[in-house]
Amino acid sequence: CGERVQRRSLEEHKSQRCPLRPFTCQYCNHEATHQKVTVEHWPVCEKYPLPCPNECGEEEIERQHLKGHLEQTCPLEEIQCDFSYAGCGAQLQRRLMSAHMKEGM
After folding, report:
1. How far is Cα 35 from Cα 39, in angstroms, rounded to an integer?
2. pLDDT given at position 1
3. CA-CA distance, 105 to 103, in Å (whole number)?
4. What is the pLDDT of residue 105?
5. Among 10, 31, 87, 95, who pairs with 75 as Cys (CB 3.0-4.6 Å)?
6. Helix, coil or strand: residue 36
7. Tens digits of per-residue pLDDT, 47-76?
8. CA-CA distance, 104 to 82, in Å (whole number)?
């Protein structure tokens, strides 16, 4: 990698610190150098765990499932009322929708 390392620290550098050492993504097993995996791969890895952007408590949602979480299950995602087609303009968190629906009946 070109970094100057004392001979006594060379093995540690090669196995633990060198940005060009072989590295495997622990989420999807993609193999490359440590630098490429952590800098280039992790930001796009479909299995990389992310917290819910709404802070609903889900802390490790695979990137590939984040959109589905927000569209289908996140209790803090803002959604339109099921009766928006009939003129209801309510837009509130999913967790509050059932109470809204009961109020309208």
Report:
1. 6
2. 81
3. 6
4. 62
5. 95
6. helix
7. 999 999 999 999 999 999 999 999 999 999
8. 11
Neighbours of 31 (CB within 10 A): 12
Rg (CA), the chain: 23
| C-alpha pair distances (Å), 65 with each of 22, 39, 95 | 28, 21, 20
Task: Report the candidate in 57, 56, 60, 59 with the shortest Cα–Cα distance to residue 76.
Answer: 56
3-class SS of residue 43: coil
Q: How far apart are CA 32 and CA 36, in angstroms?
A: 6
Q: Extract the tokens encoding 79.
A: 């959604």
Please report, for the chain, how many H helices and E strands are present, in that order. 4, 6
